Amino acid sequence: MTEETEATGETVGTDAPGEDYDYSESFPLLLHRLGISLAVTTYQAGRLYIVSSNGEEIKLAGRNYSRAMGCYVHPKGLLLATRNQVLSFTRAPHLLQRFYPETDYDDLYVSQFAYFTGDIAVHDVGLMGDTVVAVSSTFNGLVAMSTDYSFIPIWKPHFISALCSEDRCHLNGVAFVDGSPRYVTAIASTDQEGAWREHKTDGGIVMDVATNQVICRGLAMPHSPRVYEEDLWVLSSGTGELGVVNSLGFQPMIYLPGFLRGLAFYGPYAFVGLSKIREKKIFGDLPIEEKVNDLRCSVEVVNIHTGLWEGSLRFHKEVEELYDIQIIPNSRQPLVVGYDQVEDFQMLFDLPRKR
């Protein structure tokens, strides 16, 4: 790992982790056929990876960010949560011909600005109109980014009695519906700092933001709620299960051999992040560890229409934990430009185009 820059928390370097990854033969074929790439974050290794394919091989391009967490790809750009900032990148494919004429890049994301939040443990991020909304585990709720303040609190669970810098329930995930945050996940419905740790095996909840009510209980460290094809999908991380939440509770669809975190959909496919468990004090003694001796760190592809496994990208050694996965649609080889790369960002300029 290279030295971290003081201002941005980004480190210089774009190399993927050498040969410390492999993939099923189906994985590059699937990405290429769908015409997509993936944005994958790992806070443990401090990277944002862009995973792309030429149809035969997978290419990993990494940008190093301190504690890269939630990521959100939208039509105009990309958001990325880091240790003390939420970064905004703007799509600028019109610059490719000028600055990268001899490459195969087909999309470009340029660093635009950053919200400096302080270390509030931002997890998932998203957009509500033009407002950036994030989950702050430290402040137990949803917060909006601001140009005037560190952040603006906009919602907290009914059982949290005060707005304070204490991780009381470990709120972590948010699902957006029609451009607004609708569902959240938390490790437990507790109201004392760190109390959620005593309930990690069966205290997990899913809440409806609109009603501020718990709609599902009894999960093992749930993460990554997502609404897709009118279903509310949730990862029961501690049991290694992907499933849906409905009137019957949590309905598992498939079991995968890892601590689940990071979920994205495209067509009939779910892209699921799996992690090993390094922090035994926090994440140890979970049901998934009783099922599997050797947890994997990977991106697994599941066909949600058939329930069948379709492919895998597996990390080894350097990368042990993933956090988020996002789909970059209509792009087989996108480029994300970082802050400190002299060869691109420092010499890349985007001006208003003449009408």
Return the structural class.
Answer: mainly beta
Provide the CATH topology. Neuraminidase
Output the number of helix runs: 4
Strand order of the largest sheet: 1-5-4-3-26
Distance between the termini: 45 Å
Overall 3D shape? globular
What is the overall pLDDT average?
91
Largest sheet: 5 strands, antiparallel
Strand content: over 45%
Residue windows where pLDDT falls under 50 for at least 5 positions: 1-15
Radius of gyration of CA atoms, rounded to a whole number: 19 Å
Could you give the count of β-strands? 27
Find the CATH superfamily.
Kelch-type beta propeller
Helix content: under 10%
Please write out the topology:
Elements: E1 10-11, E2 21-23, H1 26-34, E3 37-42, E4 47-53, E5 58-65, E6 71-74, E7 77-81, E8 85-91, H2 96-99, E9 107-116, E10 122-128, E11 131-136, E12 141-144, E13 152-155, E14 171-177, E15 180-186, E16 204-208, E17 213-219, E18 222-228, E19 231-236, E20 241-246, E21 249-255, E22 259-266, E23 269-275, H3 280-283, H4 287-291, E24 297-303, E25 308-315, E26 325-328, E27 334-336
Parallel strand pairs: 9-27
Antiparallel strand pairs: 1-5, 2-25, 3-4, 3-26, 4-5, 6-7, 7-8, 8-9, 10-11, 11-12, 12-13, 14-15, 15-16, 16-17, 18-19, 19-20, 20-21, 22-23, 23-24, 24-25
